[in-house]
Amino acid sequence: MDASLWRPRTVSAKRHGGSLKRTDSDWLTLAAMSLGYGVVQLDVTIVNTALNSIGGALGGGISGLQWIVSTYTITFAALILTAGTLGDRVGAKKVFTAGFAIFTAASLACALAPSMPILIAGRALQGVGAAVLVPNSLALLNHAYPDERRRGRAVSIWAAGASLALTAGPLVGGALITLVGWRSIFLVNLPIGLAGLWLTARYTDETATSADRAPDLAGQLLAIGALGCLAGAIIEGGALGGGSPWVLGGLAAAVILTALFLFEERRVPQPMLPLAFFSRRSFSLMSLAGLWVNVAFYGLIFVLSLYFQQINDLSPFATGLAFVPMMAAVLPANLLAPHVSERIGAPAVITIGACIAAAGCAGLLFIARGTSYPAMCAQLLAMGAGLGLLVPPLTSTLLGSVEKSRSGLAAAVLNSARQTGSVLGVALFGSLASHAQGFIAGARAALGISTALLLATALISLAARGQANVSDH
Which pTM value belongs to this model? Predict the structure, then answer.
């Protein structure tokens, strides 16, 4: 690691109308940004470990548990584009600080929730905070590290910390639930949030602002409505049946709101989602791949968490241990992916990663009540390794399809697509698991769908490679 990354620098800071010299440590800024992204990723996996315990305490059935996960990702996915624009407009430090405060307060509300509806509302507020934290943490890193080489290393550390949090989530969650109870998984966010807020206030510099970046409020409301109606219809479809008026009405509303959203984005001068990006084939294919991958991966985490606890009667701590091989495989595969991409090309690495993950999913199609964990371990490892291998080149390919000046917005679009995939995966797979045919049948259907989506990802990556070859000539 380059020692200069951690070298303090002296800057001039304005305080109380005067100017004073202070030693500003870049690594403390990096620590604050890493805590912000890390707590978001920790929350993704730690909550899944607690679902069975929450359901036992508050009731609500599988649909209630789906809402606990999906409400968070709906607000996260729908707001992340606007949150980045807001940071550009009023300052990323102000917005990042507000996001950390919202996430921390929402975590306390979740920990104290006396009922399922209040917990779901708290999770929605957590999603708002998460959407604000992620894009503005990158903006602040970009500001703190103007040198491209040092910035690249800082971003790598930022991403690695998030991968470690994702890996630690199930294990930490299982231990906390066993020792203290499910409410502790939200309380653990409080010291992280307070530390992040203090570090941000003390060591982070504000970014430049751009008053001409106006939020697309109409587009934002339409996006939330469309995604919420779609997820709600799929979730409730598992309990009410596909022919229910509520389910059909939700699907119809989602279609109408999506059409209105697309119309609005074509009309406004500064759209939340620049549709011109999708005229580029590589960008469209990689965005679709990101959505499909998250449908498969995060939908299966939800289903497997319930399988381990409700079907195989594992404790929360044992469930956390069961996820460690899958999550632990993500980080080394992330680190390996760029080196392999340099040798054989990003599309080939995406294809290989997707096929490895698909093989893991296909290998679990035999799953049944009482299936031993050793019989599943290799498949879980393959799923994590495949995901870790394909995401970095997928991101790199998408960013390479747009101008560098718009790479931040392009990254936000990809993140939004991936979070949307998480929403749809939990909604769809949870509904399959709660269907009258039984949990095991639903889990096998979810695994079959995941296998198909990952193989389709491999195919469209090859299509993107073919397109790149045509462009090169």
Answer: 0.81
